[in-house]
Specification:
5-stranded antiparallel sheet; alpha+beta; about 500 residues; 5 helices; single chain
């Protein structure tokens, strides 16, 4: 073929040559397995013969393979598009025959929208029907009989700690206040009615894991991660009561349970309050974290439980160690004393809890309760001859002190159980869970209710402990959790038992 301007054409060809080499190198990396059929005897080189090109034959073969693949892809897409068009036309004809209106100017979009809306409506209705049928039996056992009578009413939220709250307790003497023990190294005393912080104890150098009040005097007992337990005195002045908030909700499971965003709770902590920094007595004998402590009946002795696998019995007046209670194979998790007798129960990670009897000064017997398969997080006495134990194995067991071989009732739950409490008058068990729920059962294991947990009330993280207050005519339940707040609830016991 004649070429005009041979010299300039030669220089242009030379300039294009490096680019052609780079393209040939990039194309040679991609190998194909083309199955395109060709007439017998005709090779790719023959098909390209007669075409004016400076490309090597192997490179031209690769290009033809690639272009062939692209052409087949476009052909497949074109055929598929034609099939879709035919289906759309068919649907439009059927919808027009049924008398349905096609929305908008594009009949294709209108038909598709009508069909999708119809299918979505059917699916939505089916899901609603299935959900209502599957939950109706569960919800029915927790609804109040009348809408005006709420089983659980939010009393007050107690916000001020800067870390999770492990334990809480209510004083047994006047003035009645709430005490909370927190991982922020402090214990706070609160006005139950107003939610105002009254006093701070800041004498510990570690997390405050437990708080219990003296049965007759204004003294508190706290256990800490600093391997000590402290006894300290307090004096508080209650503020004037405020009108109760108009916030109530029935204890049922069909409430809006959308969760508030986790994070810090509202409020910057308590304002300037009196602070106690020096303990009246410091109990030092443990070699590990002191996880719990409690007063023996009469208040002259205290018992402490530690991660060093031992429980210690101390004299309050002298702070002297009286007995070391050993026998658990792993760390202790809790200890509790009987309200009227010299009995102590200790729970442990070794899946057991032990009953220690100090009624006879010369004999200190011990009984081991085996029945759980995981850590026993707490074991508490009831007013009668029962012990209630909770565990990480998601069960709560009720035991008879006169027959300790097997539990008389077993409550199975869907989450690990933390520090439980039992009301003295009605013997109702309050179960705090890792999944932020708080459930109420009677002593025979019958489920009574679940505290509300919605976007307006309830804990946002693990619930660590519960405590009852039945000193006045109403019955209050207090809960605390790792969301840094404690919550007070007013429980309508007559309505709760009537629902049972």
């Amino acid at each position: 073929m004649p070429v005009e301007g041979g010299s300039s054409s030669g220089s242009a060809s030379a300039a294009r040559h490096p680019k052609q080499k780079r393209k040939a190198h990039s194309l040679s990396i991609r190998r194909t397995n083309s199955t395109e059929e060709r007439p017998p005897g005709i090779q790719r080189g023959d098909m390209l013969e007669g075409q004016d090109s400076k490309l090597p034959l192997s490179l031209r073969n690769n290009l033809l393979d690639l272009f062939g693949q692209i052409e087949r892809e476009f052909e497949n897409l074109y055929i598929e598009n034609l099939e879709l068009r035919r289906e759309i036309d068919s649907l439009n004809e059927r919808l027009t025959g049924d008398g349905q209106t096609i929305e908008g100017g594009d009949p294709t979009k209108g038909a598709l929208k009508t069909k999708a809306s119809h299918s979505t409506s059917q699916l939505s209705q089916k899901l609603k029907t299935t959900y209502k049928a599957s939950t109706s039996k569960i919800v029915s056992s927790f609804k109040a009989t009348t809408g005006s009578r709420a089983l659980c009413q939010l009393l007050k939220e107690y916000v001020g700690h800067r870390d999770g709250i492990w334990d809480l307790s209510v004083t047994r003497t006047q003035p009645v206040v709430l005490g909370t023990a927190s991982a922020d190294h402090s214990a706070l005393l609160w006005s139950i009615e107003t939610g105002k912080c009254l006093l701070r104890y800041a004498g510990h150098a570690g997390s405050v894991n437990s708080i219990k009040f003296h049965p007759t005097e204004q003294m508190a007992l706290t256990a800490s991660g600093d391997q000590t337990a402290h006894i300290w005195r307090y004096m508080v002045q209650l503020p004037a009561p405020q009108p109760p908030p108009d916030v109530s909700a029935p204890c049922d499971d069909d409430q809006d349970s959308s969760d508030r965003e986790e994070g810090e709770v509202d409020g910057e902590g308590p304002c300037e309050v009196p602070t106690v920094r020096v303990a009246t007595a410091t109990l030092k004998s443990h070699q590990g974290v002191v996880i719990a402590a409690d007063w023996l009946v009469g208040g002259r002795q205290v018992v402490t439980a530690s991660w060093d696998r031992a429980a210690n019995l101390y004299e309050v007046e002298t702070s002297e160690l009286v007995h070391t209670l050993t026998g658990h194979d792993q760390e202790l998790t809790h200890c509790c004393t009987h309200p009227t007798q010299r009995l102590v129960v200790t729970s442990s990670r070794d899946t057991t809890f032990r009953l220690w009897d100090f009624r006879d000064p010369s004999i200190h017997s011990v009984n081991v309760f085996q029945g759980h398969t995981d850590t026993v997080t707490s074991a508490v006495f009831t007013v009668g001859d029962n012990v209630v134990s909770g565990s990480d194995d998601r069960t709560v067991k009720v035991w008879d002190l006169k027959n300790m071989r097997s539990p008389i009732a077993t409550i199975r739950t869907d989450s690990a159980v933390n520090r439980i409490s039992v009301s003295a008058n009605q013997r109702i068990i309050a179960l705090p869970h890792d999944n932020r729920q708080v459930r109420l059962f009677d002593i025979s294991g019958v489920r009574l209710a679940r505290l509300p947990r919605s976007n307006r009330m309830g804990h946002r993280r693990m619930v660590c402990c519960t405590a009852w207050n039945e000193e006045n005519q109403s019955c209050n339940l207090f809960t605390c959790g790792f969301d840094r707040q404690a919550i007070g609830w007013n429980i309508n016991i007559p309505a709760l038992l009537q629902e049972k």
